[in-house]
Amino acid sequence: MLTGRFAERVQGLPLLGIGVSTEYGAGDQPGALDLAAAEAALGVGFLEVGVEVDRGLDVHARTWAGRGRTTYHFLDVNLHELGDFDAAWLDGVRRTVQELRPAWLCGDAGTWHFGARERGHMLLLPPVLTGSAVAPLVRGVCRLREETGLEVLPENPPGTAFVGDLHLLDFFARVVDDADTGMLLDCAHLAIYQRLSGRDALDGLDGFPLDRVVELHVAGGSVRDHGGFQFVEDDHSPRVLDDTWRIVEHVLARAVNVKAVVVECERNAIDAVRPVFTRVREAWGARATRGPGRGVPSVGAGGPGRGVPSDGIGSPTARMEIDAVSLERVALLLHHGVDARVSLGQAERDLLDAVDARGFEVDPFRRGRVLAALLDEFPFTVAHLGQGVLDEVFTSGAFSECVLGRGSLAHSFAERVRHRSPWAELEGAIARSRRPPEGVLGAGVAAFTAPAHLPAAWAVQKPTHDDVLAGWTPPPADSPTGRFLVEAGGIVEAPDALYAVLDHARSARSLAELLSADVDQGDIQDLVDQGLLRGE
User: Is the Cα torsion angle 107, 113, 118, 120 positive or negative in sign?
Assistant: First the structure.
């Protein structure tokens, strides 16, 4: 367990130097950075590993695991939503930490996914930059630090539409101060924000507590145009913007606690990124060596985040309590072409109206990624009903309901089509088994009733669904409707009594409540021992 103030704890963090980043499968792409060769050719000192708990570590990350020269960059948690910290995810984080042995955890403090954690979203939208959005993010940073025993460094995310009345640096100054933590300052992301908001690259840095900065990111970006709206795509290319270099050199010359600089270039050849590393080494060599109190604000000092508006950007809205949760979710919907501003109050609508609407439209593939994730989990339902059933996700209002209510799109999709396809019950149960447990059901457990006409559809093709269905044979066409159980070992028939217990367990808040239900529970402890029910 970490103890003491950050000003004391930071002294115990290792000096990692200059490193590179990777994520699952990145090293297998054509033209990807050769991590083994880069260590010597580019002077790479450590590896920052992007982690989705469900995917784990690939072979490239495992070659660095346990060497004490890694950092853990999360790609699958909305730090500001405590609902994301479910037991299964936390267990996966701890297992990954045990294998990777990172110096610290870090990651973009924005929205990686909508609703309950879903597969394949990878949104990465920036936080709402309002005072009311600070506390939830602080709670998330502190919770993850407590659960892992490691420092957690929030990172400023990229974006094309920043909503809020605070300067980005003002917002994060408040976060790191209130959470008593360090920060991962992504210089490329900050350059994107400054340019998009019409500011100089260094605006706000003089008042920012730079001794909170532990790690920097450097990456290339490409200027794009969407209907006259110019923005920078954070593409991790070797083309580093001049504004990014200005930020890197300014911060390294003043931030006394920087322990690491990551060059994000995982999909580029060594020769292409060599000039970037050369310039980073030069800036690293000139990094700050003076202590706090000599031209650098000390940890916890005033400046942005201490009630002082940065660059005169305070507004009447800044003095009002903004519904940050609703504002964030409506902004997310706008990124997907769904306008739900009518659900907001006037102050929140004013903040949205202040943003160039074209910034919400630059990614034409957002809807496609949402539908691809659904198709991945419901391939046979979609094949049976046709591609039009996916279009209904947006036209039916299901997407809005899911986002605004932080629900599961997979659950709502399965429920909406359950009577239209024999596959929906089956694939819906598999989807439930992949998500955090419901009620007192065990992790990875779901029960479903197979429609009597399932065998006719089954003849089309036998699915595997990540091997969950491997080896399962549906009931014969002349059999009564069967009841089944999805668990780690596959799909098995469930006796009526067991099915009734598990069906009640989905909504039961405790074993005591389940025991009060009018069902034949049998040996409840045996079900707990088998992992079908949770005993807490």
Answer: negative
CA distance 113 to 221: 23
In a 3-state reduction of DSSP, which class is residue 18? Answer: strand
Give the closest residue to 374 by CA, choosing from 417, 420, 331.
417
For helices 388-395 and 366-377, angle between their N-to-C axes, nearest 10 degrees: 120
The amino acid that residue 298 corresponds to is S
Place of tokens 């450097």: 218
**Running DSSP on this structure, what letter comes out for residue 484?**
E
Residue 273's closest CA among 21, 17, 16?
A: 21
SS3 content of the chain, % helix, strand, coil (to 5): 40, 15, 45
Strands 222-226 and 229-233: antiparallel
Place of tokens 């502190």: 142
Checking if the pLDDT of 467 tops 60, the result is no
Q: What is the DSSP letter of 54?
A: T
- When pLDDT is cut at 50, 70 and 90, the band that residue 489 belongs to is low
Please compute, for residue 113, the number of CA atoms within 13 A of its CA located in the half-sphere on the CB side: 21
Side-chain-side CA neighbours of 40 within 13 Å: the count stands at: 2
Cβ 155 vs Cβ 162: under 8 Å: no
Q: What is the pLDDT of residues 58-117, one digit of tens each?
A: 999 999 997 879 999 999 999 999 999 988 899 999 999 999 999 999 999 999 998 888
Q: How far apart are CA 53 and CA 91, in angstroms?
A: 9
Q: Which distant-in-sequence residues (6+ apart) come within 8 Å of 104 by Cβ?
A: 13, 71, 72, 150, 151, 152, 153, 214, 215
* Overall fold of domain 16-308: TIM Barrel (3.20.20)
Q: Is 395 a residue whose pLDDT tops 60?
A: yes
What's this model's pTM, rounded to 2 decimal places? 0.88
Q: Give me the residue spans of the domains in the chain.
A: 16-308, 316-360, 366-529
DSSP result, 21-32:
EEETTGGGSTT-
CA-to-CA distance for 208 and 218, rounded, in angstroms?
Answer: 19
Quote the CA–CA distance of 412 and 402 in Å, as a whole number.
8
pLDDT in tens, 301-350: 334 433 333 343 344 444 568 999 999 999 999 999 999 999 999 999 99
